[in-house]
């Protein structure tokens, strides 16, 4: 197994344990992260996001497979199952991840998932009816960014 594939496995094993510190240790200091909810995070923001998500996760489980990597790029598929705290609804989010590596660390991490499908699960009927609209998706992004800023401000170690 390529060392970068091992790094991806270590990342997701830490995620399964909800160990945000070990997850962040897999990243370069100047990590770039994006997904449909957090489209442009950089550096310490990325570790803070994982810290926030893992510390708040309820009824959480994670599985991953399809890990593959070479010297510069990698990928994995993962599924997060959890209770969305704002509505109490269960979400099963299927994600495709792409990675880029530099000096034995992940320097770019892009997660791809269907935000409308997530909205339908997390928000119920309102998500089903309105979750595909850019205005609703932008509101979700804004709330997530505000939540991350508030969480980061409350954590002296981040």
Describe the structure.
44% of the residues lie in helices and 34% in strands. With 158 residues, the chain is an alpha+beta fold. The chain has a single domain (3-154), classed as Nuclear Transport Factor 2, Chain: A (Roll), CATH 3.10.450. The protein has a six-stranded mixed β-sheet. Strand 4 and strand 5 form a beta hairpin.
List the helices and strands and how they pair.
Layout: H1 3-16, H2 20-25, E1 27-34, E2 41-42, H3 44-56, E3 58-69, E4 73-83, E5 90-102, E6 105-112, H4 115-123, H5 125-130, H6 134-154
Name of the top-level CATH class: Alpha Beta
- Uncertain stretches: none
Report the average pLDDT across residues: 94
| N- to C-terminal distance | 33 Å
Overall shape: it is: globular
* Percent helix: 40-55%
Looking at the structure, the CATH topology is Nuclear Transport Factor 2, Chain: A
- Please summarize the sheet with the most strands: 6 strands, mixed
CATH architecture: Roll
Rg over C-alpha atoms, rounded to the nearest angstrom: 15 Å
Strand composition percent: 25-35%
Please work out how many helical segments DSSP would assign.
6
Oligomer: single chain
List how many beta strands DSSP finds: 6
**Widest beta sheet: strand line-up:** 2-1-6-5-4-3
User: Which structural class best describes the helix and strand composition?
Assistant: alpha+beta
Domain SnoaL-like: 8-109
Protein name: Nuclear transport factor 2 family protein
InterPro entries: NTF2-like_dom_sf (IPR032710), SnoaL-like (IPR037401)
Organism: Undibacterium danionis
């Amino acid at each position: 197994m390529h060392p970068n594939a091992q790094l991806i496995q270590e990342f997701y094993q830490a995620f399964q344990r909800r160990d945000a510190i070990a997850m962040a240790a897999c990243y370069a200091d100047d990590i770039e992260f994006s997904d449909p909810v957090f489209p442009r995070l950089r550096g310490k923001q990325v570790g803070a996001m994982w810290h926030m998500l893992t510390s708040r996760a309820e009824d959480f489980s994670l599985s991953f497979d399809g890990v593959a990597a070479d010297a510069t790029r990698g990928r994995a598929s993962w599924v997060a199952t959890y209770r969305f705290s704002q509505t109490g609804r269960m979400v099963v989010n299927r994600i495709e991840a792409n990675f880029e590596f530099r000096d034995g660390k992940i320097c770019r991490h892009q997660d791809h998932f269907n935000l409308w499908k997530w909205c339908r699960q997390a928000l119920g009927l309102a998500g089903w009816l309105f979750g595909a609209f850019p205005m609703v998706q932008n509101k979700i992004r804004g709330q997530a960014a505000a939540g991350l800023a508030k969480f980061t401000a409350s954590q002296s170690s981040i």
